[in-house]
Amino acid sequence: MKDKTNKWLPWISALLIAILIASGLSLISGSFTSSMTAGLFIPNPIPSTQILGVSVIESINEFTGDNSRSYYYKGARAGITVSLIFMFVIIPFLYVKGTLQSEKRENPTAVWYAGSALMLLIVIMPIIAGTIKIYTHQYAKERSVINITQDRMRMELTGVSFIVTEQILELDDISGMSEITADEIPEVSNSEYDYLFEPNQEDSTVAITISSDKVNNFTATTIIRPYSDQIFKYQRTF
């Protein structure tokens, strides 16, 4: 058991060092929030994010016609070059050299710890970033579907509200709304959403609420006042 523990202990230590390095890079990057150019020079275990940053900034400058600082962003390619050199030259060199130095030693050398920690960093960070990106994309996709459904519900509710208003004015009696069924309003009977009609004879209003099983905790309601200057009032609840 002790041998197994000793075998994995260096890697655990290297992982902790990698976490400390990642935290340090995050703090340094955060200190450059007011200067995106400076942040692009910081070595990054995911150089593609730096490339994307430069591309976005240059595209914005080109679109706005402001090229006064474009040379700063072109210079940021040095940061990308440094990142690539670290990933494909320095880190593999440190790991291999540290491994060779540690073969005849009881404990790994400092060079091995440095190389292993950095190697774990460039392996783990893209995996974490990719996982977060997939989750964010999925969440954004689901959120987009929900927003589209809510917009359709609002538009349909507005159309139904005008139809009901016309029917009330034709009946010239708010109490007549209690006799109107969903079958008499094609837009409601053919809808994929659920409707609730609540006529109120006391203040001559009708509340129409729309809901759907596809969107939880969301309803939209219109308060129809056919005999008022404001025909109907829209409100929503979550």
Describe the protein's architecture and organization.
This protein has seven helices and four strands. The chain has a four-stranded antiparallel β-sheet, with helices on one face. Helix 1 packs across helix 6. The protein is elongated, with a radius of gyration of 32 Å. The N terminus is likely disordered.
Shape call? elongated
Report mean pLDDT, rounded to a whole number: 77
Termini Cα gap: 56 Å
Neighbour order of strands in the largest sheet: 1-2-3-4
Task: Decide which structural class fits the backbone.
Answer: alpha+beta
Order of helices and strands: HHHHHHHEEEE
Largest sheet: 4 strands, antiparallel
Bin the helical content.
Answer: 55-70%
Strand content: 5-15%
> How many H/I helices?
7
Provide a quick synopsis of the model:
The chain is about 65% helix and about 15% strand.
Helix/strand layout:
Blueprint: H1 2-30, H2 36-40, H3 47-64, H4 70-75, H5 77-102, H6 110-171, H7 186-189, E1 194-200, E2 205-212, E3 215-224, E4 232-237
Antiparallel strand pairs: 1-2, 2-3, 3-4
Fill in the keyword field for this structure:
alpha+beta, 13% strand, 238 residues, four-stranded antiparallel beta sheet, single chain
